[in-house]
TrEMBL record:
Superkingdom of origin: Bacteria
Leader peptide range in chain numbering: 1-23
Organism of this sequence: Austwickia chelonae NBRC 105200
Protein name per UniProt: Lipoprotein
Keywords: Signal
Region (Disordered): 27-46
Length: 240
């Protein structure tokens, strides 16, 4: 069974909302780090904030796979996001829950399947209730509606220079610990509270968390260690 056009559009809206919520970006780029005006200098034994964030950005963009999860805020609406798989999008599983609708997208190679996870979502897609929990093959469109969300696009939003780079303003750097793993925590005061970026302190510079009052929180894990997802079996695909 193929998607109704309205169903494809709904998936695109949900996934594109998740991307637009990420605009602003994680600081750091492939350029040589520069000392910004007003940035705090690092203490002995601590990396410079710019250098740390540049390392995290470069490590993220060069990764092969990652798991991303979190709660985001977009135009006053809360959204639950899960993305896992290859950064290049060739093998990934993603899910978005927003505005009472919950959808999963699975890509294996050149094929993509979409699974409505509740009755409200199936109804909004113009699909029968029996489709809930079953995969439907999604069309490949030039606009990339269904394929709009992958780890690489999310990482590009978070690791490309943007207007709200934390490294362009005074920031504090402190040490932390997460499940026995040493971390660096970059904190910046923002109008509605504090924005934080947590990076591993083991020399790998792996991005672990990004949070701000306006954005919400995203967690990053399983860098270069997400196993491949298999294509759905015949029993998992909706048969009309």
């Amino acid at each position: 069974m193929k998607f109704h056009r309205s169903g494809t559009a709904l998936v695109g809206v949900l996934l594109c909302c998740s991307l637009s919520a990420c605009v602003g970006g994680l600081p750091g780029s492939s350029e040589e780090p520069k000392e910004p005006a007003g940035a705090t200098s690092s203490a002995p034994g601590q990396p410079a904030v710019d250098a740390l964030l540049t390392q995290a950005g470069n490590a993220a963009r060069s990764a092969s796979s990652v798991r991303i999860s979190g709660e985001l805020s977009h135009e006053g609406e809360q959204m639950r996001l899960e993305v896992a798989g290859m950064v290049d999008g060739t093998n990934r599983k993603s899910s978005v829950k927003q505005k009472g609708q919950w959808v999963e997208v699975l890509t294996v190679g050149k094929k993509t399947w979409v699974k409505p996870l509740d009755q409200a979502t199936a109804t909004a897609m113009g699909l029968p209730v029996v489709v809930v929990g079953k995969y439907l093959e999604a069309p490949t469109t030039k606009s990339g509606e269904v394929e709009a969300m992958d780890a690489r696009k999310l990482l590009e939003h978070f690791t490309s220079p943007g207007p709200e780079q934390i490294s362009k303003a005074a920031a504090t750097l402190t040490q932390g610990n997460e499940q026995g793993r040493s971390t660096w925590v970059v904190t910046q005061k923002v109008p509605d509270g504090e924005a934080k970026i947590v990076v591993s302190a083991d020399g790998k510079g792996e991005l672990l968390h990004v949070s701000s009052p306006a954005l919400g929180t995203l967690s990053f894990s399983s860098w270069n260690a997400v196993p491949a997802f298999p294509a759905p079996t015949a029993g998992q695909i909706y048969q009309k």
